[in-house]
Specification:
Distance between the termini: 15 Å
Strand content: over 45%
CATH superfamily: Electron Transport, Fmn-binding Protein, Chain A
CATH class: Mainly Beta
Helix content: 10-25%
Number of domains: 1
CATH architecture: Roll
Largest sheet: 8 strands, antiparallel
Number of helices: 2
């Protein structure tokens, strides 16, 4: 989680992406904190909490401040906690819409995988 923690320090907020009963996505601006290998989202809204209870596969997207910078994208599994929602990361990537500098990225753009904690792997 050291890589994820260092990456998160470069961003001010994220969007927590959930899916509702009508299969429409719902984005909520959040400021997650990382503790014990999990992301904590305090005081989620009612729609976010309802969606995460029903469909715990969620994503967090930290937007860049410019097109040249990377977005941080984390996929994970959400669970309600006494403090809000915790997300156990399963995948994390830094992504930007540019060709990979060396052509070896895992996608068609400039992507860099971050390694989640071993206990968070599926």
């Amino acid at each position: 989680m050291d890589e994820l923690s260092r990456a998160m320090a470069d961003y001010r907020f994220a969007y927590l992406m959930t899916v509702g009963n009508t299969h429409r996505s719902h984005a909520a601006a959040v400021v997650p904190s990382l503790a014990g290998g999990e992301l904590l989202i305090r005081e989620p809204g009612n729609t976010t909490l309802k969606n995460a209870r029903a469909r715990p596969a969620v994503s967090l997207v930290w937007p860049p401040s410019s097109i040249e910078e990377y977005s941080l994208i984390v996929d994970g599994t959400a669970e309600e906690s006494p403090d809000g929602i915790t997300v156990s990361p399963t995948r994390a990537v830094l992504h930007r819409p540019a060709p990979s500098p060396d052509g070896s990225g895992p996608c068609g753009s400039d992507c860099r995988e971050l390694k989640p904690a071993p206990h968070a792997m599926p």
